[in-house]
Amino acid sequence: MGNTSSMLTQYDIEEVQSHCQDLFEQQEILSLYQRFCQLDRNAKGFISSDEFLSVPEFAMNPLSQRLLKMVDGLNFKDFVAFLSAFSAKASLRQKVTLIFKVYDSDCNGKVSFNDIMEVLRDLSGSFMSDDQREQVLSQVLTEAGYTSDSFLTLEDFIKVFGNCKPEMDVEIPVD
What we know:
This protein is mainly alpha-helical.
């Protein structure tokens, strides 16, 4: 399943569908496989950081370095599972879980005030000062019953940010 000369069998497609909780139809999986094979230039069966960075939209993303930690070395099945959080069919929990992983860059299962500040810095650049970011984040955490000293687990993160309506219903270009 990663070699451009191979084709997906019906079993492979169904296995990938199951792995991504049936968020993609069979035709979408075939299209994603074609895109995966294009990115996997050396037909290794996985996509490297450099191959991901060859996608201009990915390379320009202010969170690309954080995302690279999550996607480097993904095989096709895990590539589709990663993309499933961007599906319009994905639940809010699945989307917030992906966002949590972006914030939890050290993969310790907790997100600190500083972790969130780093992401806010990446996203807002010079448009906001650190003082403004701290003020906004402190207010959001306080309203949810947390402080700047709190470490948020996934469940805490969902409680704080799960009521936000993330605009992640992005169509994934598969052609």
